[in-house]
Specification:
Layout: E1 3-7, E2 10-13, E3 18-25, E4 33-39, E5 52-58, E6 62-65, E7 73-78, E8 83-88, E9 97-103, E10 112-114, E11 119-121, E12 125-126, E13 130-135
Parallel strand pairs: 2-13
Antiparallel strand pairs: 1-3, 3-8, 4-5, 4-9, 5-6, 7-8, 9-12, 9-13, 10-11
């Protein structure tokens, strides 16, 4: 069973920083693409895959950020550990959300378009989420 475990969420004041981490286990194939998505308060009824794409990184040097976080967030991937991190600086109240990581599991599934990332990606496995709360 493939599992994704996120950590690093919490509560900070505006202008603060947090670092999210996500590790994949139970998969025989290394991830090609991994990403972070978020579901803002009030949208919990939507499926996690309907969340806003925040950042994606792929092994072929593909890195994409949502316009809302570009310049403040940095995504990095550790292929050896099959993990992904998201360094979030200069956090704003609008960044408050449940953050989820995702992986393609090293295979190609169904691609869909993520508007905030302006690209097509295939994510098969999703984590349970970690809460980020930014106060003003």
């Amino acid at each position: 069973e493939v599992r994704l475990v996120e950590s690093g969420g919490g509560s900070v004041q505006a202008g603060g920083s947090l670092r999210l981490s996500c590790t994949v286990s139970g998969n025989t194939d290394r991830s090609n693409c991994m990403g972070w998505f978020r579901q803002s308060p009030g949208n919990e009824h939507k499926g996690v895959a309907e969340g806003e794409g925040v950042a994606v990184i792929c092994t072929r040097d593909v890195v994409k950020y949502a316009a809302a976080v570009k310049g403040r967030f940095t995504i990095s991937q550790d292929n050896g550990a099959d993990s992904v991190s998201l360094q979030m600086n200069d956090l704003k109240p609008g960044d408050s959300a449940m953050y989820y990581c995702a992986t393609d599991g090293g295979t190609s599934g169904t691609y869909r378009y993520f508007p905030s990332l302006a690209g097509y990606f295939s994510f098969t496995y999703w984590g349970q989420g970690t809460q980020v709360t930014v106060s003003s």
